[in-house]
């Protein structure tokens, strides 16, 4: 059995802790033979445990404590600590692993409630489960969500070489906004969401660039955001935003502008990883 989970990009600018899309980069786990102790074979970072300390197993055991140990092969092209949902992908893999090995028959809603309780906010785990564009709210220990197809487009990920931990990036945020600021910030988010649902990417992208909840406070941690956004605007990108807590920057693109944009971004910094992705509309897959 294999379980495949997509990368995700949270926030889409103003949809802070609420909106996310799934992307065509994947974590794949292959469940191999049962054994006495858990063994996770991977060629990811040396700091990722290969025994039951691995987040995959920790999550699975949190869902069902008496799961039989297995050997598992783990591969991933989702970069770690770059704002593309790498830890969420492992959490979803762990929940699905428990679901299948433990014959739990969990619903999407049950998986989402468990994953959000672990992660603290739903904007990566929800699109990782559902695919496409997900708008979710986590209140009183309950997730309410809507999944929708995201309009066709290219997505360019500008992935800096340095990691940025979510914890550090959240510490840069203010503890309060004024009532007036909150009204303005939420109106921008509301129009962004409505525009995506209408298939209006030019308007959605414009709103993605007007976030008032977090990007300005994080700018000192991602100084390249302003330069990348300027290029995106000059080259006809729909919208450019900080992916999750950063440092990756995502550009939502009309496909005929992608090549020219890539050239401009390479000219800006040839050492940065640039991936051209699409939106994964399916979410977690088991095969
Ligand atoms: N919404 C979260 C943030 C996503 O921006 O901090 C990262 O986990």
From TrEMBL:
Among InterPro entries, the record links this protein to: GHMP_kinase_C_dom, GHMP_kinase_C_sf, GHMP_kinase_N_dom, GHMP_knse_ATP-bd_CS, Homoserine_kinase, Ribosomal_Su5_D2-typ_SF, Ribsml_uS5_D2-typ_fold_subgr
The record's annotation in SUPFAM superfamilies points to: GHMP Kinase, C-terminal domain, Ribosomal protein S5 domain 2-like
Q: Which reaction does it catalyse?
A: L-homoserine + ATP = O-phospho-L-homoserine + ADP + H(+)
MF annotations from Gene Ontology: ATP binding; homoserine kinase activity
Q: Which Pfam families match?
A: GHMP_kinases_C (PF08544), GHMP_kinases_N (PF00288)
- The segment(s) forming the GHMP kinase C-terminal domain are 192-266
Q: Where is the GHMP kinase N-terminal domain?
A: 54-132
What would be one Gene Ontology cellular-component term for the protein? cytoplasm
Binding of ATP: at which residues? 79-89
Q: What is its main location?
A: cytoplasm
Keywords, in A-Z order: Amino-acid biosynthesis, ATP-binding, Cytoplasm, Kinase, Nucleotide-binding, Threonine biosynthesis, Transferase
According to its UniProt record, in which pathway does this protein act? Answer: Amino-acid biosynthesis; L-threonine biosynthesis; L-threonine from L-aspartate: step 4/5
Its EC top class is transferase
Instruction: Kindly indicate whether the keyword Transcription belongs to this entry.
Output: no
Q: Which domain of life is it from?
A: Bacteria
In short, the EC number is: 2.7.1.39
Localization annotation = Cytoplasm
Biological processes annotated in GO? threonine biosynthetic process
Check the record and name the PANTHER family matching this protein. Answer: HOMOSERINE KINASE, HOMOSERINE/4-DIPHOSPHOCYTIDYL-2-C-METHYL-D-ERYTHRITOL KINASE
Q: Which NCBIfam families match?
A: thrB
Instruction: Give the function comment from the record.
Output: Catalyzes the ATP-dependent phosphorylation of L-homoserine to L-homoserine phosphate.
Matching HAMAP family: Homoser_kinase
Please state which protein family the record places this protein in: Belongs to the GHMP kinase family. Homoserine kinase subfamily.
* Name recorded for this polypeptide: Homoserine kinase
| Lineage, highest ranks first | Bacteria, Bacillati, Bacillota, Bacilli, Lactobacillales
Q: Which gene encodes it?
A: thrB
């Amino acid at each position: 059995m294999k379980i495949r989970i997509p990368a995700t990009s949270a926030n889409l600018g103003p949809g802070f802790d609420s909106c996310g899309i799934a992307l065509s980069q994947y974590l794949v786990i292959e469940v191999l033979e049962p054994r006495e102790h858990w063994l996770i074979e991977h060629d990811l970072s040396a700091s990722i445990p290969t025994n039951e300390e691995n987040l995959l197993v920790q999550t699975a055991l949190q869902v069902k404590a008496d799961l039989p140990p297995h050997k598992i092969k783990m591969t991933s092209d989702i970069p770690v600590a770059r704002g593309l949902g790498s830890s969420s992908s492992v959490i979803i893999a762990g929940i699905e692993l428990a679901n299948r090995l433990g014959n739990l028959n969990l619903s999407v809603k049950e998986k989402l409630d468990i994953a959000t309780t672990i992660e603290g906010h739903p904007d990566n785990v929800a699109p990782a489960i559902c695919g496409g564009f997900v708008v979710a709210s986590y209140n009183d220990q309950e997730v309410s969500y809507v999944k929708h197809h995201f309009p066709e487009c290219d997505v360019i990920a500008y992935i800096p070489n340095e990691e940025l931990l979510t914890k550090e990036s959240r510490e840069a945020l203010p503890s309060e906004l004024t009532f007036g600021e909150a009204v303005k910030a939420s109106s921008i988010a509301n129009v962004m969401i409505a525009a995506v649902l209408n298939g209006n990417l030019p308007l959605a992208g414009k709103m993605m660039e007007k976030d008032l909840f977090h990007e300005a406070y994080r700018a000192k941690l991602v100084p390249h955001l302003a330069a990348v956004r300027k290029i995106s605007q000059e080259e006809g990108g729909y919208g450019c935003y900080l992916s999750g807590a950063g440092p990756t920057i995502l550009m939502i693109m009309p496909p005929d502008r992608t090549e020219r944009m890539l050239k401009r971004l390479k000219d800006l910094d040839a050492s940065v990883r640039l991936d051209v992705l699409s939106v994964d509309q399916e979410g977690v897959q088991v095969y």
